[in-house]
Inverse folding.
């Protein structure tokens, strides 16, 4: 039997309860890794109202994929709990090869459609604590293990592969700060042969998204009738395969400090999603917006929303100056 590429490697995936974190943990397991699956939702004590997923379930999935899953309840905003986690890993494994920072939990705190001066700062600061503070705490406490062995990979997980505005001040801060964390840590860690970078999924078919569309993974295509953009959606394991490919790449240091999408990694490393497709959300979304611009009919509100979203994505990118001007002209004409 061919040895799996991450055999004997040890990984920590924070926020492994569901969504991207669960997909990453599973696919690291499929590559042979021992994966510590952390989060706050454990059997009998869910941390997110209305969601049944637990870290124990994720650990079981990791093991069923061919790795070894270990569930450890950890609140990554509490330094003492994070210290206990890494002390245990040092004691049990004496190594750490991959650290994935995917703590989020801010969906219910986003106030879409409200300008920043009307936002609830209590909700906003809680969002930043979960999405930014927890990542800093975790890396700060975990990275000394990697420094001792002079190797390792830190993966920050964000939403979107542009530096443009994400529609809400606190959400924008959280997701852009995560990108900056990957870059900033890469500068400090370069001398220690540790790579830090940031990844993003595309249109994610998370457990919550499937529920929102009223579909399951088996019949997810039925959701396209509700939103045609759903046709380019992807499973959490697609990003998981991207992270596994990065962890197994002997030349991953060449990506130090960078920002990579699941679609771009799939093209580079040659993997597919679970159904054999190879979604590329960034290219797909840009093409769909061009179709809207080329359509001579008066756009509906959803089309205008998507055009605004595209302009927000690219307006800080000098290479997209021409497209941005076209988008702005279109919005001036119809808004």
């Amino acid at each position: 039997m061919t040895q799996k590429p991450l055999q004997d490697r040890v990984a920590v995936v924070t926020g492994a309860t569901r969504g991207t974190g669960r997909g990453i943990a599973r696919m690291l397991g499929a590559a042979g890794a021992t994966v510590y699956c952390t989060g706050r939702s454990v059997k009998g004590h869910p941390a997110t109202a209305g969601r049944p997923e637990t870290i124990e379930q994720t650990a079981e999935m990791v093991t069923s994929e061919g790795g070894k899953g270990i569930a450890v309840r950890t609140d990554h905003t509490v330094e003492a709990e994070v210290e206990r986690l890494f002390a245990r890993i040092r004691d049990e494994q004496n190594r750490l090869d991959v650290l994935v920072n995917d703590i989020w939990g801010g969906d219910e705190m986003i106030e879409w459609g409200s300008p920043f001066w009307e936002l609830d700062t209590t909700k906003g600061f809680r969002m930043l604590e979960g999405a930014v503070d927890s990542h800093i705490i975790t890396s700060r406490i975990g990275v000394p293990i990697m420094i001792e062995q002079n190797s390792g990979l830190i993966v920050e997980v964000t939403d979107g592969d542009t530096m443009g505005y994400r529609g809400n001040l606190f959400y924008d801060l959280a997701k852009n700060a995560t990108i900056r964390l990957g870059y900033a840590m890469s500068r400090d860690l370069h001398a220690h042969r540790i790579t830090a970078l940031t990844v993003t999924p595309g249109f994610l078919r998370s457990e919550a998204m499937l529920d929102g569309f009223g579909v399951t993974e088996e019949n997810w295509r039925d959701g396209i009738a509700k939103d045609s953009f759903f046709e380019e959606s992807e499973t959490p394991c697609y990003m998981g395969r991207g992270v596994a490919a990065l962890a197994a790449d002997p030349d991953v240091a060449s990506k130090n400090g960078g920002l990579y999408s699941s679609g771009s990694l799939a093209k580079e490393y040659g993997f597919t999603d679970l159904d054999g497709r190879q979604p590329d959300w960034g290219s797909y979304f840009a093409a769909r917006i061009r179709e809207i611009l080329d359509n001579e009919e008066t756009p509906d509100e959803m089309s205008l929303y998507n055009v605004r979203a595209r302009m927000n994505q690219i307006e800080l990118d000098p290479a997209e100056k021409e497209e941005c001007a076209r988008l702005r002209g279109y919005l001036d004409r119809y808004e």
In short: Residues 285-334 form one domain.
